[in-house]
Amino acid sequence: MGNSKKLNSKKSNSKNEGKMQLKYKIIIAAFVSLFLSYLISAGFERDSLQAVQSIVAHEPSGVSGYFSTWQSNLLFSDFTPSDIFRIEIIFVVVMFIALNFILDTRKLYNFLFEKRWIVGACILIFMTVNQFNGDSLAMYDSYFQTGEGSDFLYPVFGRERAIRSDEWMVDSAKNLSEYQLKNRYGEYNYLLRASNVSNEEKLSFANIASNPFYLIGIIIEKVLGMNCSYAFGWYAPIILALLIGIEFFMIITKGKKLVSFTATMMVYFSSFYLWWGFPKWFMWMHGALTCLYYFIKTDTIKKRCLIGYGAAVCGSNFIYTLYPAWQVPLGYILIVFIIWIFKENIEDVKKLKKLDWLVFGVAVFLIGLFTVAAFYDQKEYMEVISQTVYPGKRVSTGGNRIAKLFDYIPALMFSVKDSMNNSEMGMFITFFPIPMLGCLYYMIKKKKPDFLTIGLLIVSLFVGLYCSVGVPMVVAKATLISNSTPERAVDILGYIQVLFFALFMSKFKLPVYEDRNKKYKKKNRRNEETAFYVKPGFWLALIGAIGVSYLSVQEANKYVPAYMGRGFKVIACIIVAIILFNLLYTLNVKRYERTLYMVIAFALVTGAFVRPICRGTDAVYSKPVAKEIEQIVEEEPDSRWIGNNTPVNPSMLIACGARAINSTNTYPNLELWNELDPENQYSDVYNRYAHVVVTFTDDDTSFELLTPDTMRLYLSYKDVEKVDVDYIFSTEEIGVDNEYVTFEKIYDEAGSFIYKVTEK
Q1: Ranges assigned E (strand) in 16-163
Q2: What percent of the chain has pLDDT over 90?
Q3: Nearest by Cα to 552 from 409, 423, 448
Q4: Rounded to whole angstroms, how far apart are CA atoms 657 and 194?
């Protein structure tokens, strides 16, 4: 008895000592991580990143330039508040890496995976409280009074992206304008186009019932302020998309955690998703299908009611977040998955009771109700945009874009080196065509038809036909694919390859563990060399891997010649060939996991640095000219403005609360344009979604189409009175010698000018 007590006492003391040692290790790791964060942060300064870009661009001076700027930054020569937040972010990352060396990694990652929703909430709180966003608002510093303003003009991490103009110049300016409205949640946003445009943030049934972020955003704005609300609005959809994506892929992979996480990273860290501004259709589709699956699988009516509401929110959002170019091909996939889920779970479906079917019917009804309510909120937009030249009347029969599926190697560089258009080139990490062929091979080998594989193959063949040679107009219209374009539909083909990858890797049979932290059972040890389902032989697998990776490089060279240097091509080819070889050849457990880790790393390199991390909105509001505009608007709230000569100027105006007649026309202001063009001579130019550039002229008023979504209005001095404008905001001086109107300069500072307009 006494020996037993002593033994228990020793065990207890040993545990306590172990806990104390762990605490000391964590404390030491925290101090070391803080020091390393300071060292590393000096290499992430704005000038340091520019040096890195020069390295990628094969400029020899880049290496020496990087180290000289790093040493300079290390000496606190120009330490700013932005550096504090940079160190804070790096500390979190470095500390997490340190925990991998202190704690049991399997336990650590299992814990994080099991608590992923809590972890996601913590990350969102961290980003919100710190007022971080992923916007490229720093672009405004390039246009207005460069270098003047607060310490947060530039990103804390990364760099602003000029190519994302639809984001920072259109969406972000519109979102900021909503904060400037007297009635923040009223019916109209009267700043856009200086006319009543439906306010997307209005207090409406659709927003309250089907927007999961709406009420939370209002509370955060009231309690913590605009910048925190703006940060929440930025990161909440992204984090939710990641979490829902994991749940969705867990269904496809039958609960394979690592494969599900890898596939989620392949989608949401792809250059397509990050460069295109987080297309929400994927999140809503994943959410709707996940809710449908768990609605069938759950066993209580309370859970079914909650899940049914979630399905209604996700389903309605998928429908009314309109962009047919991606929605239509995604719709094909949605149909395949709905049928598959019912087919795979037919026994559970048969067990559903009348009350369960009633709840299901109510969920379907709510999808329709929320969709109709949302369309009603945007009825003016829907009516007008459908009649526009662009994008309303766009019709396509496809063709000549299939080669993009091979561009996953140059995608590795998109975050650090600009191409002709990184957004257009952005793509999913596909490893095409290996995942698709692997799934097909496995199905043939097992002689067992797999409905999901067959369904996705049918969709791939049809969309692939559309993207390669095109389809007849009658077929295109009957299948609605005419509302897409091959440039957009091919992106969905890439997404299908990710689905194939998840199916492909989930077929691997893992060994049975006696204890996940110990070795395998002896009788199951032979399973460590589990034969994979694709085994073409070592040399055949090697040749296939090298061939596909080489083909990827060659296709990319045709599309973006001279984009990749020789060294990068060789290294990238080797990396991709290793991944493809492992996918093709017989896998053991260790190589299987390493392959997935390599794909995760591939995804991180592709997307981690695409988006900057900025703090607040100082790039706009700390500018002296912004304060001047706000002051004038406060005194004359009904004044009408023109942002002269660039499409960025009117965006600055609406962000500062001014009513700009030439802010981006998300749908055309036909009342104004018809006033200037009563004979509709230029209707094909202005009857479209368009950025509007205004240039004053002595000649008659005319319109010129610069690009499919940009037009120039040559506004005659004699027609200025027709637009009833009070102020002009410009980044260059305006000629004032004309017989119709007077431009009185009332503000002139650092290349920004404001003129008051009066009739002569």
Answers
A1: 132-133
A2: 58
A3: 409
A4: 11
Angle at CA of residue 36, ends 30 and 37, nearest 5°: 85
DSSP 8-state secondary structure symbol assigned to residue 394:
-
CA distances to 106, 382, 597, 668 from 484, in Å: 44, 17, 35, 22
pLDDT of residue 516: 43
* Cβ proximity of 722 and 675 under 8 Å: yes
Give the contacts of 612 (CB within 8 A, at least 6 positions apart): 134, 135, 136, 138, 155, 156, 157, 158, 159, 160, 161
Within 566-623, residue ranges assigned H as helices are 566-584, 589-607, 618-621
H/E segment holding residue 640: strand 640-643
Q: Which one-letter amino acid corresponds to residue 463? A: V
Beta bridge partners of 690: 665
Q: Using 50, 70 and 90 to split pLDDT, how confident is the model at 123?
A: very high
Residue with tokens 């991944």: 579
Contacts of 279 (CB under 8 A, 6+ apart): 272, 273, 323, 326
In angstroms, the CA 655 to CA 672 distance is 22
Taking Cα atoms as reference points, which of 39, 38, 67, 37 lies closest to residue 51? 67
Q: Where are the alpha helices (DSSP H) in 298-412?
A: 301-320, 324-344, 346-350, 354-377, 379-385
Distance CA 747, CA 754 (A): 5
Of 609, 613, 606, 163, the C-alpha closest to 418 is 163
What does the block give as tokens for 156? 């804390």
50 by DSSP, 3-state: which?
A: helix
* Single-letter residue type at 290: T
Whole-angstrom distance, CA of residue 671 vs CA of residue 384: 12
pLDDT tens readout for residues 439-491 = 888 888 888 888 999 999 999 999 999 999 999 999 999 999 999 999 999 99
Separation of CA 73 from chain center? 31
Buried b (16+ CB within 10 A) or exposed e, 280-290: bbbbbbbbbbb
pLDDT digits (tens, 9 = 90+) for 381-407: 888 877 888 777 778 898 888 888 888
* CA gap 363, 237 in Å, rounded: 22
Give start and end residues of each alpha helix (H) in 198-280: 205-210, 214-224, 226-252, 257-268, 271-275
Residue 105 amino acid letter: T
Contact by Cβ (8 Å): 71, 45 = no
CA 275 to chain centre: 6
Lowest mean pLDDT segment, chosen from 117-131, 224-238, 418-432, 689-703: 418-432
pTM for this prediction: 0.90
Q: Cβ distance 412 to 609 under 8 Å? A: no
Closest to 555 measured CA to CA, from 710, 408, 396: 408
Q: 111 near 590, Cβ under 8 Å?
A: no
Pairing assessment for the beta strands 741-749 and 752-759 based on DSSP bridges: antiparallel
Q: How many residues does the chain have?
A: 760
User: Which token pair is 497?
Assistant: 């390859």
Whether the CB-CB separation of 349 and 301 falls below 8 Å is answered with no
